[in-house]
Design brief:
Structural class: mainly alpha
Oligomer: single chain
Number of strands: 3
Distance between the termini: 83 Å
Radius of gyration: 23 Å
Shape: globular
């Protein structure tokens, strides 16, 4: 009797499998990030306006901060648009702050030279140091980094802009909201819903720790603790966020 050889049936494939790390389309693009962050920030700010929990000028600030937060995670990517924009703006701002902070008596030429020296230092030296220190999808691209940026925004609004503590915290919250949306979109794009496969980048955005760079992770957590104590008291913000009256005044239909 001749026995027929039959191919063994392959093992059942798992419901979700992983692609190799180099799979294409693993992250949302810049346009998607900024569009979704703008839309979500605009909707949240509009709800605060409709509830009477924010004035028009505050709503505009919250919208801007949320939109900025939507692109901030990619400042750790060399030659990315957010990174270039951040350092271009930062170079101008820091240079003017240092120049305006000089004691009276300097000549115009001296002030211009001070401005130029600070501008070039930030734009090239600090920029070069930053891209060497950071790794794309490292700890900058994480939840604790988003918390740091939010706390930094709240501290800046309170101490520099003179905005009341509750609304300063709200501004920091909107920046964190945009930051979190960016991370969530990247995780969402790491799932191939057509065949339920996980791409190699899955899990690299919504993380709390970068095990590949524990030194930077510890620095971010240390900065988060320091910024929390520098930030204004969060009581006013929590009252706005947790009060039933804030949401009772929102009407979605005429």
């Amino acid at each position: 009797m001749r026995s027929t050889c039959r191919a063994t049936s392959p093992a059942a494939t798992p419901a979700i499998r992983r692609h190799s790390p180099g799979a294409a389309g693993t992250v949302a693009d810049f346009k998607t990030h900024i569009t979704v962050a703008c839309g979500a920030s605009g909707l949240a700010a509009t709800c605060l306006l409709a509830a009477g929990a924010a004035r028009p000028e505050q709503v505009l600030l919250y919208f801007a901060l949320g939109s900025i937060g939507g692109i901030l995670p990619d400042i750790d990517a060399d030659n990315s648009i957010p990174l270039k924009l951040t350092f271009d703006i930062l170079s101008f701002v820091v240079a003017f702050v240092v120049m305006f902070g000089q004691p009276w008596g300097h000549s115009v030429i001296e002030l211009v030279l001070i401005w130029l020296a600070v501008f070039l230092a930030v734009k090239f030296l600090i920029f070069s140091f930053f891209i060497r220190l950071t790794v794309h999808r490292g700890i900058i691209h994480s939840i604790p980094a988003g918390v740091c940026f939010g706390l930094a925004a709240a501290t800046w609004l309170d101490q520099v802009r003179g905005i009341s503590a509750g609304y300063a915290w709200m501004g920091g919250f909107f920046l964190f909201l945009g930051f979190f949306i960016h991370l969530f979109l990247d995780e969402l794009h790491a799932i191939n819903f057509s065949d339920m496969r996980l791409r190699g980048s899955f899990g690299s955005a919504l993380k709390l720790v970068s095990f590949k760079d524990m030194r930077s992770t510890l620095l971010v957590y240390a900065a988060m603790i320091l910024l929390f104590f520098m930030a204004p008291p969060p009581g006013g913000f929590l009252r706005i966020l947790l009060s039933k009256s804030t949401y009772a005044g929102i009407r979605f239909l005429p």
